[in-house]
Amino acid sequence: MENNNKNSKNQEDSQDLSDTNMISFDDVNYAVYKVGNWKNSYKINLIGTSNEIPVTEVTKDHVLFNINEIRNSTFEIEGKEVNGIVALSMQLNNALQGIAIDELINEEKEEYENIVNEINSLELEDSNGAIELENNKFLIYKLEKDHHITVAKPANDFTMKHHAREIQRLKRMND
To answer: Distance between CA atoms of 84 and 78, rounded to whole angstroms?
Structure first.
């Protein structure tokens, strides 16, 4: 019951702030990131290969949930069962194609531990704070449900431009 009240409060706060084009840092309808670098180097974990760093508790929880959901998916590649992170990274990064499956599996485990530790140790914005929707400091994605999938849509120009650059970067990785 308490969770329903919290979600209701977040929705009310979101509606109040939307009139002023402000996003609350505790709004579950938005993911907020900064552009930055992770402490460790990643080649398999898709979150770690991005330069989008969560800055809110809501975003941190969303990212950790997604990582675990993808890891819980399993696929068979070259006769071995691999988790979704390994399968996706092999599909999205041609440079991984020649690496032995067992090596990728072991590397992913290490990267998973590193990224989870990094995410859990991030300095986050105060959950009681807010930011203007149109800004050049934070990447803001509107989270929308599309059937059973949460879709993150760029919510401002800064995010839209960054998102387009990221798509181009991913394409170049496969050229």
So the answer is: 14
- Is the pLDDT at 40 greater than 60? The verdict is yes
Give how far Cα 122 sits from Cα of 19, 44, 69, Å.
Answer: 30, 21, 21
Q: How remote is the C-alpha of 105 from its chain's centroid?
A: 21
Q: Which residues pair with 77 in a beta bridge?
A: 80
Query: Could you read off the pLDDT of 101-133 as tens digits, one per residue?
Result: 999 999 999 999 999 999 999 999 999 999 999
Instruction: Please answer whether residues 33 and 152 qualify as being in contact, where contact means their C-beta atoms are separated by less than 8 angstroms.
Output: no
Structural Rg of the chain based on CA atoms:
18
Q: What is the dihedral of CA 21, 26, 31, 34, to 10 degrees?
A: 90
What 8-state DSSP symbol labels residue 54?
Answer: E
How far apart CA 71 and CA 175 sit, in angstroms, is 26
Please write the tens of the pLDDT for every residue from 84-93. 999 999 988 8
Q: Which two tokens stand for residue 112?
A: 């998973």
pTM of the model: 0.83
Give the count of beta carbons closer than 10 Å to the beta carbon of residue 32.
26
